[in-house]
Amino acid sequence: MFDALFQFFFDLSPLVFSQGEFRFAPTTGSYVAAVVVGIAAGLAALSYRSGRGRTRDRVVLATIRIALLAVILICLFRPLLVVKAAVAQQNFIGVLLDDSRSMQIADNAGQPRAAFVRDEFGAPDRGLLKALSERFTVRLFRFSSAPSRVTQEDLSFSGSQTRLGAALSGVRQELAGLPVAGLVMVTDGADTADAALGEALLGLKAEGLPVFTVGVGQETLSKDIQVGRVVTPKTALKGTTLMVDVVLSQSGFDGQKVTLDVEDEGTLVSTQQVTLPDAGTPASIPVRFSVTEAGPRVLRFRISPQAGELVTENNAREALIDVRDRKEKILYFEGEPRWELKFIRRAVTEDPNLIVTALQRTADNKYLRLGVDTPDELVAGFPKTREELFAYRGLVLGSIEAGAFTGDQLRMIAEFVDRRGGGLLMLGGPRAFAEGGYAGTAVADVLPVVLDRNQLQPKDAVSRMSVKPTRAGSATAVTQLAATEAASAEKWGTLPVVTTVNRIDAIKPGATILLTGTDETRRERPVLAYQRYGRGKAFAFTPQDSWVWQMHASIPVEDMTHENYWRQLLRWLVDGVPDQVEPRSMTERVEPGEAAELTANVVDPSFVELNDAAVSIRVTAPDGAISDVPMSWDGEHSGEYFASIPTRAPGWHEARLEAMRAGKIVGSSVTHFRAAPGDAEFFDATMRAATLKRVAEDTGGRFYTSDNTATLADDLRYTGRGVTTVEDHDLWHMPIVLILLVGLLCAEWGYRRVVGLA
Amino acid sequence: MSSAWRNALAAVVLVGATSAGLLAQDGMRGFGRGRASTEIASTVDYDGRFAFMRLRYGRPSGGFNNREPWAHDYPRADFHFLKILSELTFVRSVVDAGNIRTLADPDLAMFPIAYMSEPGFWTMGEEEMEGLRGYLEKGGFIIFDDFRDNHRDNLIAQMRRVLPQATWRPLDATHPIFHSFFEINSLDVEGYYGPVEWTGIFEDNDPAKRLMAVANYNHDLGEMWEFSDTGMMPIDVSNEAYKFGVNYVVYAMTH
């Protein structure tokens, strides 16, 4: 609209004005006329100095008259706009057509976005292609990831990604050496590339190659539901119940109830009714499900398509979880025989993926070892070396005082969390927390609660607490005691009270309270608190007798509350604890034919990074073909190795990493990735005007919408690139000049009428 | 058992005996000594510590020698044992109060180790039967002591009511319960009434799983504990009785 009005008033497009240079081209007559106009202006000023009317009216009328004469004078000096214009058929332009799947979305005046491309570039004798061909030699490219030359028949609109930067850089290089007036990019702008666009734009900017972008589609979809984001762990232990947040957004379905399903490789594992949030306000929905099958699993979070939805492909989002079926070993050190150890061990006895090895101190320097693998394990008591302690993935400290450890052992425990990445859980008891002398120790730094040696629970004082989850705790699997959130909350309300002999009032700034207790004085106390610390995590569970959730007379025999709680908590304790060879960042999915990038951290048994290990990956492709890919130290980050793994066929690839050092195996690990077409095209698939404007503005081009491309072909002539000729455009006969002159005359006449001087 | 622990136990027995003797002369005067009639009433509120739970059954009065069979050796046996337990181990115990409850008492659940004396005279109603079943299935542990001859028939019959599928299995010296604190390598023990037979009931009748109940047939640990301070029992005999009791408690608290 603005462009059309500008063109009407100024005879030329705004782009021509922005590219041109303003000059005057006066003749001798112009100077004579200037003298005449000057005299006329002087006479006008004199004549208005006195006479009829008020002084103010005379000033206004004199000003209008002089302005009128000034406009005439400017026109007599022949103002020009000098621009460099491309010589017809002497220059090239590159036209990039988006061939990705999002172009199939039917939001362009009720038609698919692809229809615009077909209409305008489908035949050389019509549309934009005709207009461009009359002025330039046109090179057509299609792109989704990398660009390639096309004919109209080649367009299928089935590309699984849109990489604007790669496409622009590719075409720039393709046309290098040719007189190129500019590039035209026809796209919805839904860039799916991880890489920033800036690098590609810098190259274009450096070369002075303008990009004229044409945005196809609507900036908002009228009716759509989108599963925007799902945050899942990369790995999970088989049988673990996960709570993940699913972010939903919508337009056109305010307040509607829909069903959110979770499928594990096609098997429904969770379903729940959710109320959609207000339009434009994404909402995070907690979803609970269990992973019961080992191996790489694709979890699909899906909302059934609703009537009238423009895009249904974005109603589902997939996430890959590597479900590990292995036994995670936890060391539980208990300082006095008590029921908590017995019932925690019982709770996880049936869990095939957890081993709780207990070191029970029964008397001074007397220990009972339970669940040890070898006769020598823990035979000398609590581990005295890092290698020995770091072989476990989780550590539970029961009612065992700090004085039972050496200073180095306390530091080892802190390093177990910080450096090894293990999970530490301290349980309440008379010898735990500040009452156990931990305040001021290295372990106190790790714990999520504040220990104050001046604020101890009085000896033999027992506080009884009823426990309930906090808001943050409700979003975690560990607090889920029943099938639904409401049933779980009700269950917490019926659990018997527990007791504590530790006074804990505050948590660390970075910690989160997951369970809270209300004591007899109605004071709130942390019951379960959590924080990340270094590479690992630490928990504080303050009651001394969660076993009453199993034994109490009000708890039925078949009730699984205690078992579920401890299984979930101990699984969380060891969740994500790294191995000695740990794949650190992984491309979950790559396009078939692309390379998957894998990095891995390699450490020795005491978790000191190794830079001199020989690390290799044995890759098993979907067809069973095996190949070995070496990993190399990245030379920058200690212990970090990198490899790029080529893929050929679509499907699952298994990557088995093994690190060797001095002829011995340091460690091994297995991970998976998938080669498959992505569905990112349909997420956030609105036309990205902001991105396309940025591309145009950063390169000196212009942004158009699909219904506003009338001046595109002409605008391209004035980019100043390629083979050009200089054009002078007289400005005196622009309609705006005539309108201005007539307007000033009318203004003088009108003013005179108003003030009675006509 | 190492010699160090043997010496320690002997020393503690003597200390405990002395203490218990003093206790009996003073605060425990009401409970009397030996087989005298007594008024029994004692419970403790749960506070996180171990309390010796003696089970009461049958009618409130009458019974053997003007004492209820369930109360034999009470309170001296219980207090002596608690004294030894707290001296030898890190088990935090209530040492100054008895704890007597019926199988139907809801608070029974707060004390997951229970001791029953003279199960040959054990009778129970439906509510008690349900109480014990839940107690054992949820994780409780019960010790049957002080029975002989055909008393075992009653124990078996009553337990069949509680756990119909359960079977009593003989225990040998390799079982972890005999190594949880003291190393008891031989079960060849001459009991109070004759050669002792050690039997137990396992969870799901699986010997690899938790032992839920243990029975000392032909033996009376309580009697040994009770008279350990009188000189009527040889130190070695008392020692052995305490060793079994301590091992039972530590096992039940860890398995």
| Overall radius of gyration of chain B | 17 Å
CATH classification, class level of chain B: Alpha Beta
Name of the CATH superfamily of chain B: Domain of unknown function DUF4159
Shape descriptor of chain A reads elongated
- Which percent range fits the helix content of chain B? 25-40%
Helices of chain B, by number, come to 6
Question: What would your notes on this structure say?
Answer:
Chain A contains 19 helices and 35 strands. Chain A has 758 residues and is α/β, with parallel strands linked by helices. Chain A has 5 domains: 2-85 and 727-755, no CATH class; 96-217 and 686-712, von Willebrand factor, type A domain (Rossmann fold, 3-Layer(aba) Sandwich); 224-324, Immunoglobulins (Immunoglobulin-like, Sandwich); 328-574, 3-Layer(aba) Sandwich (Rossmann fold); 581-675, Immunoglobulins (Immunoglobulin-like), CATH 2.60.40.10. In chain A, the strands form 6 sheets. In chain A, strands 18-17-16-19-20-25-24-23-21-22 form a 10-stranded mixed sheet, sandwiched between helices. In chain A, strands 26-28-31-30-29-32-33-27 form an 8-stranded mixed sheet, with no helix packed on it. Chain A has a 6-stranded mixed sheet with strand order 5-4-3-6-7-34. In chain A, strand 30 and strand 31 form a beta hairpin. Chain A starts with a helix and ends with a helix. Chain B is α/β, with parallel strands linked by helices. Chain B has one domain (3-254): Domain of unknown function DUF4159 (Rossmann fold, 3-Layer(aba) Sandwich). Chain B is built from 6 helices and 7 strands, in the order H-E-H-E-E-H-E-H-E-E-E-H-H. Chain B has helices at 3-25, 76-88, 126-138, 151-162, 221-226, 235-254; strands spanning 53-56, 100-102, 113-117, 141-147, 169-170, 197-202, 211-217. The A-B interface holds A 335-339, 341-343, 345-346, 358, 360-364, 366, 368, 370, 430, 460, 462, 499, 501, 544-545, 547-548, 550-557 and B 5, 46-48, 50, 88-92, 106-110, 112, 131, 133-135, 137-140, 180-181, 210, 249-250, 252-255.
